[in-house]
């Protein structure tokens, strides 16, 4: 509750109150049910270190405004990065062109929506730190990876941070703002042995202050983890291929939840009936110990926000409870058309993008088994440790790419394995979840999710999980 | 962006910012300004879903002082903001380390005749909104009339016009304008629990070259329904036919591995392989930035280096890495006109077609897989390893037997370049990284 930034739109966007109202009116001049202005100002910084030098830095400014008009199921959208009244008016007229009924809707007077929470209570805002401070972090991670082992031949480290100011006003009278910090420190280490090369990756961050890199995860740890993974892969063998029991590591395996379940519970795919979940609300879709949440309110997390990009206060949203589908991720358009409550999951990449239902921080809730019990129960199988990413089709078919893992033999993790692919259908995998661990963790706070060309920060997590059978793709 | 006075203003802004940065102490400076306009319409179930139209601009700069580099970009084009950004860049540069390889390219005498590249289609800015919307509606309608199609992701039509202004402190000052248009459709077939889906698209610089709604709908239908009722297959090693879109995907990965940046960073398995045999005699690859009307064509790259045609692989021998100025200096090579700003990007990077028609490739296959779609990540440029989720068509005795899903394909790009035993004659410049159908002798296909 403390430290909440007392931003007013005047500080960042020089558009007077009455002009905003005028624009909302222009946007509804041809009819339509709803109009909205999204103003964004974002400053982004990047530092790259490679070949032992700070090679380059970059600064980016993004300033612009998007105007949306909803008319039934239709959306009209215009945007501009020239904030003169004439250009804004033009964008508003573009958005207005979607509507063609003449019933004129009245604009409610704008009133500031107070927010009583702050999910990014940072102590030392990253965007206010000196560049030198951030360069020191990059160097520490770099040197830590480089000095970890003589087999580490090459390192790259980067620090990326941004501060995003947004203001949203709409024809319902909503006026809400947010100031969102975001930062990450990432490191890639390349190891070499007997002519073979492998790359390891690690990183951390979130909607954090610079203190995170002292209190929570140090740059040295990030460097070491990247180096360790590269060395581990140098000794790794080709993965096995075929159908077998698969154990998912805690934290990193959250990408499975994100891909296999989260996307298909975004309301737009269900409203359009393209998701296989569209007719499964209230039905059993997973083994009964499976409970899945999406929670944009976890402090400091990459996927968190005080308001979503439509100005809605977000809620921790259950998606699957004890194996039953109980929820979906809603934005304003889908919630209205489906006659559902808003959940605060309308997100957009930037002012040039139309908001759509998106995930924030998605996870499988913890179960009752210890991770040891789970691994011990497998005679021969595959343990998936780290991932490069994943992808899903609306039809429920998904894959994810495992960058490193282990063979499980007689209940023990044995040989390290590299570059495998897991593939399946989401309902198949959800039903084949056999054991869930008590060790809920979240993956690296560095992830980005793409949908319809829009990239947004997300996080995901899960405990150790055993899937009774799954197809592993490999060379053997 | 269409009026001349506006262009005049932007040109003047770019030039004056170069002078400003020099006056503030920069040794070298490079400024790009993009002035763009976009239109997009998404149609679903016969109705407009989204309609978007906007003009936008972007500024981008590189400043070098004492061999130290700083970049900046901005969507706010006020002179005040941009001057502030350039001043910040000069300050930030002082905190980086000197790098002897940094610096702008020297001014080159070679000049490309921009008009001969045919990058601008005057028909595109004149297209009527109603016509654009009708094209998307028509495309979806044809597909929905087919009883096998059960749902639609929608059809989209979009156009873009971009004017690029480029100025640097070596006296380079040029501009060019490009147009693009695209039409696409995504559909589903089958019931809720047996859904299959696919899409088709056409993207061109000239409207008259765009595929018709009928062509796009037919192709999307064919690609979707052929996946209905898939089977699982056993894990095995078999020959694999790559459809052109799949060859494109493979070429995208090859580009990452021959990019000068990954070579000097030693993150490619093709490091130190120049002049060596990396594939068989069927593999010839070019990067050509000067093919008239092609999607990846441009007169000069993001550093003002004129584009060219570069032979990358000649009958299996690795001839050139694709470089920007920085990578070229690091590798003691010459820039190939592939700068994307910070890194490198393909111009038109393609595999030269062979002589075999795709039908013949199929009939020659006794048993194997046609790869039609991959999903996921699973590409490792350090090793060349590939591992992806895949969809395919199972082939027996030269004929398609049934679709397969829930499989993965694994292999290694280095091996694929050696084991490609047929290259098809069906190269079409559908994307900046196009390729024909190819057949690879063997890959691991993992199933149950």
Characteristic terms for this protein:
heterodimer; A: 476 residues; alpha+beta; 7-stranded mixed beta sheet; 6-stranded mixed beta sheet; globular; B: 448 residues; 6-stranded antiparallel beta sheet; 17 strands
Task: Explain the overall architecture.
The complex is a heterodimer of chains A (476) and B (448). Helix content of chain A is 20%, strand content 39%. Chain A is built from 11 helices and 23 strands. In chain A, α2 runs parallel beside α3 and α4 packs parallel to α6. Chain A is globular. The model of chain A is unreliable at 1-7 (pLDDT under 50). Chain B is globular and about 70 Å long. Chain B has 448 residues and is an alpha+beta fold. In chain B, 52% of the residues are buried. Chain B contains 10 helices and 17 strands. In chain B, the strands form 3 sheets. A 6-stranded antiparallel sheet of chain B has the order 3-2-1-4-5-6. In chain B, strands 7-12-14-15-17 form a 5-stranded mixed beta barrel. The chains are: A alpha+beta (476), B alpha+beta (448). β3 (74-80) of chain A pairs parallel with β2 of chain B.
Q: Largest beta sheet of chain B: what is the strand line-up?
A: 3-2-1-4-5-6
Number of strands of chain B: 17
> Tell me about the biggest sheet of chain B?
6 strands, antiparallel
Number of DSSP helices of chain A?
11
Please give the alpha-carbon distance between the first and last residues of chain A. 55 Å
Low-confidence stretches of chain B: none
Largest sheet of chain A: 7 strands, mixed
Distance between the ends of chain B: 56 Å
Please name the two chains that share the biggest interface, counting residues whose Cβ lies under 8 Å from a Cβ on the partner chain: A-B, 81 and 71 residues
The outline of chain B comes out as globular
Beta-strand portion of chain A reads 35-45%
How would you name the oligomeric state of the polypeptide chains in this document?
A: heterodimer
């Amino acid at each position: 509750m403390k430290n909440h930034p007392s931003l007013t739109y005047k500080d960042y966007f020089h558009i007077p109150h009455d002009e905003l109202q005028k624009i909302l009116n222009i946007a509804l001049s041809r009819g339509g049910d709803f109009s909205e202005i999204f103003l964004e100002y974002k400053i982004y910084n990047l530092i790259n270190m490679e070949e032992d030098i700070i090679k380059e830095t970059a600064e980016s400014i993004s300033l612009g405004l998007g105007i949306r008009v909803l008319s039934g199921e239709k959306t009209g959208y215009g945007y501009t990065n020239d904030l003169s009244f004439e250009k804004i008016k033009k964008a508003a007229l573009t958005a207005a062109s979607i509507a063609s009924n003449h019933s004129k809707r009245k604009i409610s007077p704008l009133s500031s929506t107070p927010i009583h929470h702050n999910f990014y209570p940072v102590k030392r805002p990253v965007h206010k730190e000196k560049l030198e401070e951030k360069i020191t972090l990059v160097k520490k991670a770099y040197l830590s990876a480089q000095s970890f082992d003589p087999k580490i031949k090459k390192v790259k480290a980067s620090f990326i941070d941004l501060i995003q100011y947004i203001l949203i006003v709409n024809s319902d009278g909503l006026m809400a703002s947010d100031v969102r910090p975001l930062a990450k420190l990432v490191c890639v280490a390349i190891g070499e042995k007997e002519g073979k090369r492998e790359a390891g990756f690690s990183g951390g961050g979130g909607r954090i202050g610079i203190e995170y890199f002292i209190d929570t995860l140090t740059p040295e740890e990030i460097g070491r983890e990247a180096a360790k993974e590269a060395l581990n892969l140098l000794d790794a063998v080709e993965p096995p291929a075929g159908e077998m029991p698969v154990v998912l590591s805690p934290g990193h395996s959250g990408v499975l939840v994100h891909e296999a379940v989260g996307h298909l519970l975004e309301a737009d795919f269900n409203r359009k009936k393209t998701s296989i979940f569209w007719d499964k609300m209230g039905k059993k879709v997973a083994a009964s110990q499976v409970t899945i949440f999406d929670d944009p309110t976890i402090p400091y997390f990459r996927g968190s926000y005080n308001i979503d990009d439509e100005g809605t206060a977000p809620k921790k949203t259950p998606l699957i409870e004890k194996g039953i589908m109980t929820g979906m991720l809603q934005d304003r358009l889908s919630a209205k058309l489906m006659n559902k409550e808003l959940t605060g999951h309308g997100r957009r990449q930037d002012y040039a993008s139309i908001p759509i239902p998106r995930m924030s921080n998605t996870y499988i809730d913890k179960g009752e088994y210890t991770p040891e019990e789970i691994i011990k129960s497998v005679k021969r199988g595959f343990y998936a440790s780290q991932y490069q990413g994943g992808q899903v089709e609306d039809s429920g078919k998904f894959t994810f790419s495992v960058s490193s893992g282990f063979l499980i033999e007689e209940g023990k993790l044995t040989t390290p394995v590299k570059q495998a692919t897991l593939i399946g259908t989401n309902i198949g995998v959800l039903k084949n979840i056999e054991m869930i661990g008590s060790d809920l963790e979240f993956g690296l706070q560095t992830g980005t999710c793409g949908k319809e060309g829009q990239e947004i920060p997300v996080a995901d997590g899960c405990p150790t999980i055993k899937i009774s059978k799954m197809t592993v793709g490999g060379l053997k | 962006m269409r009026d001349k006075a506006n262009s005049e203003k932007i040109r003047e802004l770019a030039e004056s910012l170069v002078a400003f940065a020099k006056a503030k102490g920069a040794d070298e400076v490079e400024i790009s300004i993009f002035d763009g306009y976009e239109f997009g319409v998404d149609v679903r179930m016969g109705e407009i879903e989204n309609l978007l139209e906007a003009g936008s601009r972007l500024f981008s700069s590189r400043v070098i002082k004492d061999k130290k580099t700083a970049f900046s970009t901005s969507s706010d084009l006020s002179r005040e903001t941009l001057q502030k950004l350039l001043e910040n860049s000069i300050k930030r540069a002082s905190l980086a380390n000197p790098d002897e390889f940094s610096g702008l390219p020297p001014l080159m005498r070679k000049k490309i005749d921009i008009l001969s590249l045919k990058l601008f289609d005057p028909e595109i800015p004149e297209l009527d909104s109603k016509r654009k919307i009708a094209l998307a509606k028509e495309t979806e309608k044809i597909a929905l009339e087919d009883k096998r199609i059960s749902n639609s992701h929608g059809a989209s039509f979009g156009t873009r016009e971009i004017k690029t202004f480029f100025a640097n402190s070596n006296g380079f000052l040029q501009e060019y304008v490009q147009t693009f248009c695209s039409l696409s459709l995504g559909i589903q077939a089958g019931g809720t629990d047996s859904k299959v889906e696919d899409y088709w698209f056409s993207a061109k610089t000239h409207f008259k070259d765009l595929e018709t709604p009928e062509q796009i709908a037919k192709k999307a239908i064919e690609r979707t329904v052929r996946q209905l009722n898939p089977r699982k297959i056993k894990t095995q090693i078999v020959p694999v036919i790559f459809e052109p879109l799949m060859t494109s995907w493979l070429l995208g990965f090859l580009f990452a591995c021959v990019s000068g940046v990954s070579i000097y960073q030693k993150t490619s398995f093709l490091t130190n392989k120049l002049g060596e045999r990396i594939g068989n005699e069927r593999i010839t690859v070019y990067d050509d930035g000067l093919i008239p009307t092609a999607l990846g064509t441009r007169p000069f790259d993001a550093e003002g280096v004129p584009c060219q045609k570069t032979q990358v692989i000649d009958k299996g021998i690795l001839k050139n890495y694709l470089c920007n100025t920085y990578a070229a200096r690091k590798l003691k090579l010459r820039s190939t006109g592939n700068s994307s700003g910070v890194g490198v990007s393909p111009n038109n990077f393609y595999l030269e077609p062979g002589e075999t028609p795709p039908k013949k490739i199929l009939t020659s296959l006794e048993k194997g897989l046609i790869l039609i779609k991959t999903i996921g990540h699973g590409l490792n440029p350090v090793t060349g390893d590939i591992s992806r989720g895949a969809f395919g068509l199972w082939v027996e005795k030269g004929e398609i037997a049934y679709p397969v899903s829930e499989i993965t394909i694994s292999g290694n790009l280095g091996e694929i370049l050696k084991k490609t035993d047929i290259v098809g004659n069906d190269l079409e410049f559908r994307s900046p990284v196009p390729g024909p159908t190819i057949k690879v002798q063997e890959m691991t296909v993992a199933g149950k």
